Amino acid sequence: MVQTTPLPNQQRHILCMKWGTKYGPEYVNRLYAMVRRHLSGDFRFVCLTDNTEGIREEVECFPIPDLNIHLAPGQRDGAWKKLTTFEADLYGLKGVALFLDLDVVIVGGLDEFFTQNGEFLIIHDYPRFWRFGERIVGNSSVYRFQLGAHADVLEHFRANTDALRARYRNEQEYLSHFLHKQGKLSYWPAAWCPSFKYYCIPAWPTNYWKEPLPPRDARIVIFHGEVNPPDALAGRRNRRFRHIEPARWIARAWG
Predict the structure, then answer these.
(1) With 60 as the cut, is the pLDDT of residue 74 above it?
(2) How much is the pTM?
(3) Would you say which domain of life the source belongs to (predicted)?
């Protein structure tokens, strides 16, 4: 039984972030449509972006805050940008926020993502057979937090950028360890956010004739690694000798 507790009567926000050219406005627009179908009641949908062109009018757009870090020539800040969601004052937004990566596919109800117990909730990163010891790192494709409540995450990163980038391979590893040390890190129920790569693709050799399908209790399917939603829909897998059939349910989820 999933333990949920209604949050105080606060404004609910869906946050996403789009920069560069990898993801076009259609990703934001599809994400909004999926959220609207699966989240009851009122919410604000906010996209932090460097380009608002083509984004539907229901989406509130703001510039991605500056990380305010020094980068060497040619060095990119990449997904570290996501740490700017923890600004002490993010454009005056107040309440609770659920951050979603643009390439997730929503297949189930979202209401409980706002009522699940926990101060900061994130996906428990998927187990790998070669990793030993306690798993702390979360996958930041889906995380929930109180806006403005974790400004120290960003402040600490800005003050120690080079050392932290050398120690942690990405923003989700740093974020997870920082909040774990404070006793604030919790994880979504494992069934809610399955990996497409690990939990939807049928085992060999049935992957040659069975459609990849989300598990029964899935809410948000996560795409990481070599498969993205358009490729999965078309039955393409971007590695040699790794066949998948078309995942036709993605088109139905997009609506």
Answers:
(1) no
(2) 0.93
(3) Bacteria
